[in-house]
Design goal:
- The protein has 242 residues and is an all-alpha fold.
- It has two domains: 3-157, no CATH class; 172-242, Serine Threonine Protein Phosphatase 5, Tetratricopeptide repeat (Alpha Horseshoe).
- 66% of the residues lie in helices and 2% in strands.
- It has a two-stranded parallel ribbon with strand order 1-2.
- The protein is elongated.
Length: 242
């Protein structure tokens, strides 16, 4: 993370500065997203929505935004046993330690600013951290809290919905996982292609190769403009389909 991505309470009073750092956060996360694990980084860009939703218009909003920025800083912190030259930290010895710090910071925002946009986005961050820590039920509860509080058209809903699907997979609930991926495609049309690709993966893993092949065979028609068409074709070939 660049040094300029460190927010102070003074910065939180300056909307322009806050929005610049939010843009850097978005770019940082986008550059590091990978397939199904993209959900684990979704909460890092929540600072963008808070910049717009809270507007930093009053003392409570600034305090909430400052608290949420602490979540963002912890989530983007470097993993290192010792301080790194030229960087101010924080540093964590492991990803587990980092995720625990994120969870603690996010839980404080939820507790201190109930009913605010900051609390909603902190719930998303909390879900991501609990997911990384393999605390499935706690992660699910946090994602559900975010989905209940965030607007239906919020740009980060895909992250919580993906997280719920991944939780069901980790629990071994194939039908529930498929339903969760279907929900993602229905509620976030821009993620419908990813949802179908993941559904095919879940089906294949569950021994339902024919259903997976059928879904992948029609992928190019259903999502002809998707950047995932090539990947769907590769997966179909590996399953012996055409």
């Amino acid at each position: 993370m660049s040094k300029s991505a460190e927010l102070t309470r003074k910065d939180m009073k300056e909307p322009d500065k806050f929005q610049v750092v939010a843009g850097e956060a978005a770019a940082w996360v986008t550059a590091r997203k990978t397939k199904a694990l993209a959900v684990a980084g979704a909460a890092l860009v929540a600072v963008i929505a808070v910049a717009v939703g809270l507007g930093l218009a009053d003392r409570k909003a600034r305090a909430a935004g400052a608290a949420l920025s602490g979540v963002y800083q912890a989530a983007g912190a470097e993993i290192s046993a010792v301080p790194l030259p030229g960087q101010t930290g924080p540093f964590f010895p492991s990803d587990e330690a980092r995720q625990k710090a994120v969870a603690e910071a996010a839980a404080r925002v939820v507790a201190d600013f109930p009913g605010t946009s900051a609390a909603a986005y902190a719930s998303l961050a909390l879900g991501d951290a609990r997911l990384r820590l393999a605390e499935w039920d706690a992660a699910g509860a946090a994602y559900q809290a975010y989905l209940a509080a965030a607007p239906k058209d919020d740009g980060l809903r895909f992250g919580a919905l993906e997280g719920l699907a991944m939780i069901e997979e980790q629990k071994g609930n194939t039908d529930a996982a498929l339903a969760a991926w279907t929900r993602l495609g229905a509620e976030v049309p821009t993620s419908a292609d990813r949802a179908d690709l993941e559904k095919a993966r879940v089906l294949a893993r569950a021994g339902k190769a024919d259903e997976a092949k059928k879904l992948l065979a029609g992928f190019g028609v259903a999502h002809e403009k998707s950047l995932l068409v090539g990947e769907a074709a590769e997966r179909l070939a590996k399953l012996g389909g055409k």
